[in-house]
Amino acid sequence: MKGEQQQDHVRSNEERPFKYNAGDRAIGVEMSQAASVASAAAEFIDEGERQKGMGPLNRAYFKRPGERPAFLVLRDGCEDRPLFREDAGTAPVGPCLIRSEEWFNTPELAELYDSWLTAEDEVQTERTLQRIYYRLRAASLELLESADGAWTAVALLYTPELAALPARLAVLQDAQLEALFSAVAESQRLGSDCRVDLLAPYPASAPEFAVIREFIEDVAEQTLGHAYAAACRIGALIAPGAHYAAGEIARIADFLVLDGAACGRAPEASSAEGFARAAGEMLAAVRRVKPAAVVLAAGAPAAAALADLYAIGMSGIFCSAGQRTEALLRAACLTWMARQDHNVDPAAGGWL
């Protein structure tokens, strides 16, 4: 029955991509190219400011028919995150990507994780897991109270050690999901507006993703109820080497993220050119089965291949704090040039 519900949601999922709020902004004939690019970059960076006073937006997944939405440049990671939200009325244009491994890189959680992984006594294992749960719940609350808490996409924990131990991986992911959803419940109780999307890490096939999706929905329903579980957006983090399965995964996924941080599985995709090629193949496979699907990219190769990803029609990228300013400017330049091409009437030899 769960699989049938997923299939029933396929058509509605196609109409709810990330909400793009770039708007239509005309560029004057008299503006020089440099001034136009600077203006477009400023608009792109300050997009959130224009949302003030508009009231809460329905941050649903949809695509406007007949027009290309803005190419999103979104945050990847906890680095340089503002601690508090600046304006409760400002709606983000997309989520911030949080990789659970970042939480386990903190000294306390890293120590607890090592203890849990090597524990031989069942009682000690359970106690350590409980301590991990409380630390993850505290980290989740901190995330939801921060500027990124308005809309975040959390990738479930995945480590090379646990990949070979699927039963233990499931136990730890269960604790993580329970901690995250408990934090969401607490945040909602306090009146905070937060949205948490989930990413299944590196499914190799559609059936594998379906199992992870059902697992996430079960924990969400047990913690927050059926309504929240039904509304929870669940996507897939795709490794470049497994991008050929993305088309089938897209049938039951709300969005997809091609992860350049996993290029170790496909060394040929570690360069900008190789990553763009993998992204093009993945996008073509996805668009055949779900034309309105939201497909993003993440990792250093994604930032390096931004121009190619824009050209092939990707929805946007997640990038680190160190790459984001340059990526925003490059995306603004590409957006400006696309507007130029769109507004020039070849027959008249000038602007429409």
Fraction of residues in helix? 40-55%
Average predicted confidence as pLDDT: 79
* Overall radius of gyration: 21 Å
Order of helices and strands: HHHEEHHHEHHEHHEHEHEHHEHEE
Q: Largest sheet, described in full? A: 8 strands, parallel
Folded structure, characterized:
The structure is a single chain. 50% of the residues lie in helices and 11% in strands. The protein is globular, with a radius of gyration of 21 Å. The protein is α/β, with parallel strands linked by helices. An eight-stranded parallel beta sheet has the order 1-8-7-6-5-4-3-2.
Keywords:
single chain; 352 residues; alpha/beta; 8-stranded parallel β-sheet; two-stranded antiparallel sheet; globular; disordered N terminus; disordered C terminus
List the helices and strands and how they pair.
Layout: H1 2-8, H2 10-13, H3 33-45, E1 72-75, E2 96-99, H4 100-104, H5 107-118, H6 122-145, E3 152-155, H7 160-163, H8 166-189, E4 196-201, H9 206-224, H10 226-231, E5 234-238, H11 246-250, E6 256-259, H12 272-289, E7 295-298, H13 300-304, H14 306-312, E8 316-319, H15 321-343, E9 344-345, E10 350-351
Parallel strand pairs: 1-8, 2-3, 3-4, 4-5, 5-6, 6-7, 7-8
Antiparallel strand pairs: 9-10
Helix pairs in contact: 3-15, 5-6, 6-8, 8-9, 12-14
